[in-house]
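Sharing in case it's useful to others searching the archive later.

Someone asked me privately for the predicted structure of FGGY-family carbohydrate kinase, so I'm posting the question and my answer publicly. Question first, with the sequence:
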Amino acid sequence: MNGEQEKIRNTIREGKAILGIELGSTRIKAVLIGADHTPVASGNHVWENRLENGIWTYPLESVWEGVQDAYRKMAEDVRSRYGEEIGALGGIGISAMMHGYMVFDKKGKLLVPFRTWRNTITKEASDKLTELFRYPVPQRWSIAHLYQAILNKEPHVQEVDYLVTLEGYVHWKLTGKKVLGIGDIAGMFPVDVHAKDIDQHKVEQFDELVEKENLPWKLRDILPKALVAGENAGVLTQEGAGLLDPGGNLKAGVPMCPPEGDAGTGMTATNSVGVRTGNVSAGTSVFAMVVLEDKLKKVHPEIDLVTTPAGDMVGMVHCNNCTSDLNAWVGIFKEFAQSAGVEMDDDQLFSLLYTKALDGESDGGGLLAYNYLSGEHITHVEEGRPLFVRKPDSRFNLANFMRAHLFAALATLKIGLDILFKGENVKLDVLSGHGGLFKTKVVGQKMMAAAAGVPVSVMETAGQGGAWGIALLAAYMLEKEDGETLDSYLRERVFAGQKGVLLEPDAADVEGFNQFMEKYLCGLAIERAAVEALR
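And my answer, the predicted structure tokens:
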């Protein structure tokens, strides 16, 4: 064992390593970081959401099976690398997919299956609340789900005692604390960035709106308490330690930071919490976050207003669909290769096909694709119907095919970014990319720069993702000095000296993407017709 490994081993043995766990759309990841903030061990668990009775959901038992499996694999990684058992930890942070609807009664029983961010079933509530608040309330926000349930006269609303997101639920069970990071609260209900809290005026507006329903609760009573980055969010209880590590090695009493959504951890993991910085996470879904200098001039239903984990205002463009349909096409090519007797691992196959897109025509040769496995609020498509369309004279070859599908993965995002950059004149110095789309070097980055029209940076740590980001937020809670902001902590203590690759937008790529978008916007009528025709 070399000196660096011995140092890590001692950090683990002394109970000073910090754990971050993120429940993503397709993967639950546990990352352990050492004294220098770099990952020293990890564990992964693959899971999938289910469409049950028209609702995208994950069963609660799958949540804990996944969390325990990811933790167990991380602990095994520690054992194999450093010969240590994890007994104590310095800190823990929990992150997950933002938004959605989890409601519990007074006994802690889940009242209806978890309704994830992916559901687009709350349009009436979303529209009414946006009008009432004069503030964008997207369909996936928790308050939209709650109000839609009220409008639908769902009987369970009378029994609601606690409304929370997935990460808030896991944190609650680990600590007994009903709290949530401000960035995640901002995906449940509008926040007041000056008070760093839920917007009390809008709470009162909501209570007045539903007063005639004679509900046994007021909104504040059923929401978690808002906390900002750096605040203590409780400690791991004995029961919580057993939930994480059923083997019984993990000791209780570990300090835990405020749970945050994947947007907040993505900002943290890409050093994008300062003004005029932004990041884009591109995987199963895609969202871009831009830290704003000023308020937006108008209310845009396509733009979420959320916050950094420190409570600063962020303009967010969120799209339900990104790489899932693209991955399905890559799966077809893999099946063909296997049938031809050619074995390639997934990394090789993705790299080969993504790189081929660079040989395509700038606009994708007139090919058109829609990657909608589920609905998209930005384009007002209620359900998903993945489509590939071409005219007889389109240039149909592999390079154009891959380029068109990569463009399609970012097309809806571009609609929202154009509102920010062109409609609101928001300024951005650099957009940091992370997620599966950027795993193949250059390709996703180049396409993203063409879509956004701004420089895109991908750092060496981009693949670490939100589990690393929430571990950094736990480290900030433990290590921050008086007056030290999250922005300065990340810049000076975590990312100082970090290397990254910066790509400026290529003029031909930008023009080609714009030409693709002209066809894309016109062709949305085809997508909507498919929703009606294919039932």
